[in-house]
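call fold(seq) -> tokens
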Amino acid sequence: MALPGLLIEYLVSGAIALTWLLQLPALHDKLFGLPSAFLPVAFLLLYVVGMVVDFLAWNVTQYPKRWIRTLVYRRYRGSDAIDRESGTLRQARIALYAPDLAKELAMRSSRDRIARGCVVNSVLAGCFVLPWWVGVLVSTFAIVIWASFERLSYGYELCAEQLVTERLNRQAENSAA
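ret:
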């Protein structure tokens, strides 16, 4: 799932980036002047553009993501709780003990990556394509969508972790009895 997922995610982000990239006259003329034999190269370029967009989006959203995750964690664990565990360790534990939950988590993560790419793409489209007020509206909408997806995905991750922990505790109790 991971490799095809990343391939699709980066192609989607790269394709969305075309909305603002094609507004640059130098790129517009060169892209539409390519012979059809270069179509595979165009897909490779879309993939690379998608990677760049995702990298930029990751950098832009990392601090709001921490804030969102702190709020969600406190909602699930208590008002003054602090998440000290690595998300990677949590996801690995879920994958080891509950593969179906891990697949759902991976699909949600894929959706989140596309949404965060849309945040950067919407801002850039607002700069190059859209009137400023439409750019602000579209960017605000993209941020709200990404934040909502991030909140839902992290909440799911915490619930999946709780279910895995409960299952492991029951198994330990049953083996001790």
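The chain has one domain: 2-176.
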